[in-house]
């Protein structure tokens, strides 16, 4: 059975050769179902990733001067995770963990890429199986729109499980000039294309078109907006909506965020119009906390920002919606992490390829139904000279040469009061747990620049 196909000694190539829709359906007991029945039993997935959007960057998380009704509607119709984390405070490592479903320290993608995105050394390890590859092998159509930031060549999206790709490979891109970076063009598949529209709107157009194209198939659509990442390029058509904001940088940021929110709204509306809303899991999160001073996005009331393991760098807007399956308006307060997204998606998609033995997340739906148990005993981070562990309400943090610091996040969300001296036993308990986790990691391959 498919549950037995993947094991620790099997290569990625063997996995992709042996698994397939028929084998997975057999494991599900679905081999006799018609194509229509199979489709009805398998939900669509839309995974929306914002870029550099801080914890308080949207209305349902505390933003008051920039309206984000469409992003907020995901929380209103589903679940908002107040203690939702990513695995890294910068872009590429978070995306690696998200796509693989394991801590990126396990496979050497801890610090992100160097400056040369076309270097043969850059990219996901070939031994790692992506979420898209697993879903594609299970019979899903797979599409990606937006920012990849996980390599080119053999590491490009179309080589790592996505049948359709429209976007760019690198870390950032002009919103106004599709040919601004000659080494990192906007591409359809692998072919460079020219675009005249504002880039966020272009990505929305492509995401909507993909949903309409694949509406009769079970699909996985990964929409990785580069908004609200630098450069600060204004959306001229939205300037009037931001006229009440006096700070000129904040006003530009507002137009960028409005474009993102409008895009989310169009995606949600398309799911409704095509009759797919009640058969589609929608996930929304950011890849890391806000760089605050750079783009004026906010992490309030958290301390810290992008590139730090303080809460402001790793705790982000995180919400899911599955209308008709998940009751709306829920607020969930236990710690969850971006690794849980792969486990949740593979569970509801009915994929049985042995991932349960390899991935490090959990199916969040199980814990929404049973709120007595916590999804994780602990969550872990390592980023260069920084390290952290969260266990329950407690967090142990190492920042470079500073001594380990201990915080009670339930009482001190802003990490203002170090309790390491007062609570030495608790600090020692968390340090021991962190060291056991870290012993299973490997050294990073790249240096973040």
CATH topology term of the largest domain: Alkaline Phosphatase, subunit A
Can you name the CATH architecture of the largest domain? 3-Layer(aba) Sandwich
Structural class given helices, strands, pairing?
A: alpha/beta
Query: How big a fraction of the residues is strand?
Result: 15-25%
Instruction: State the share of residues found in helices, binned by percent.
Output: 25-40%
Major sheet strand order: 7-6-5-4-8-1-9-10-2-11
The CATH homologous superfamily of the largest domain is termed Alkaline Phosphatase, subunit A
**CA distance, first residue to last residue:** 45 Å
Number of helices: 12
How many domains make up the coordinates? 2
Overall mean confidence score, pLDDT: 90
CATH domain class of the largest domain: Alpha Beta
Give the uncertain stretches in residue-range form. 1-9, 20-39, 113-121, 445-449
How is the biggest beta sheet arranged?
Answer: 10 strands, mixed
**H/E element sequence:** HHHEHEEHHEEEEHEHEHEEEHHEEEEH
Assign an overall shape: globular
Tell me the total number of β-strands. Answer: 16
Radius of gyration equals 21 Å
């Amino acid at each position: 059975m498919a549950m037995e196909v993947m094991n620790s000694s099997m290569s990625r190539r063997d996995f992709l050769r042996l698994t397939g829709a028929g084998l997975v359906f057999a494991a599900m007991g679905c081999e006799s179902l018609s194509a229509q029945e199979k489709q009805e039993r398998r939900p669509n997935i839309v995974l929306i990733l914002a870029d550099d959007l801080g914890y308080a960057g949207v209305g349902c998380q505390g933003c008051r001067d920039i309206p984000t009704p469409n992003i907020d509607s995901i929380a209103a119709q589903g679940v908002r995770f107040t203690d939702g984390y990513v695995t890294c405070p910068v872009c590429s490592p978070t995306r690696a963990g998200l796509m693989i479903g394991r801590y990126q320290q396990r496979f050497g993608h801890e610090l992100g890429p160097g400056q040369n995105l076309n270097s043969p050394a850059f990219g996901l390890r070939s031994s790692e199986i992506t979420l898209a590859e697993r879903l594609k092998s299970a019979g899903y159509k797979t599409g990606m729109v937006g920012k990849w930031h996980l390599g080119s060549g053999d590491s490009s999206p179309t080589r790592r499980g996505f049948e359709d790709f429209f976007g760019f490979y690198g870390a950032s891109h002009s919103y106004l000039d599709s040919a601004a970076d000659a080494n990192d063009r906007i591409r359809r598949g692998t072919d460079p294309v020219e675009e005249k529209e504002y880039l966020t709107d272009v990505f929305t157009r492509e995401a909507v078109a993909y949903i309409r194209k694949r509406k009769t198939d079970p699909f996985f659509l990964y929409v990785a907006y580069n908004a609200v990442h630098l450069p600060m390029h204004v959306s001229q058509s939205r300037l009037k909506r931001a006229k009440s904001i006096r700070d000129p940088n904040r006003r530009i940021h507002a137009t960028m965020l409005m474009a993102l929110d409008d895009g989310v709204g169009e995606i949600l509306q398309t799911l409704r119009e095509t009759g797919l809303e009640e058969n589609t899991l929608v996930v929304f999160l950011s890849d890391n906390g806000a760089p605050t001073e750079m783009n004026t996005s906010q992490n309030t009331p958290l301390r810290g920002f992008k590139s730090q393991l303080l809460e402001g760098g790793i705790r982000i807007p995180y919400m899911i919606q599955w209308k008709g399956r998940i009751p709306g308006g829920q607020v969930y307060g236990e710690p969850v992490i971006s690794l849980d997204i792969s486990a949740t998606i593979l569970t509801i998609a009915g994929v049985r390829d042995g991932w349960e033995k390899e991935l490090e997340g959990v199916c969040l739906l199980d814990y929404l139904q049973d709120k007595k148990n916590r999804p994780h005993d602990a969550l872990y981070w390592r980023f260069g000279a920084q390290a952290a562990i969260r266990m329950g309400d407690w967090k142990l943090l190492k920042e470079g040469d500073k001594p380990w610091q201990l915080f009670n996040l339930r009482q001190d969300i802003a990490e203002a009061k170090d309790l390491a001296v007062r609570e030495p036993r608790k600090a020692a308990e968390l340090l021991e747990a962190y060291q056991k986790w870290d012993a299973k990691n490997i050294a990073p391959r790249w240096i973040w620049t």
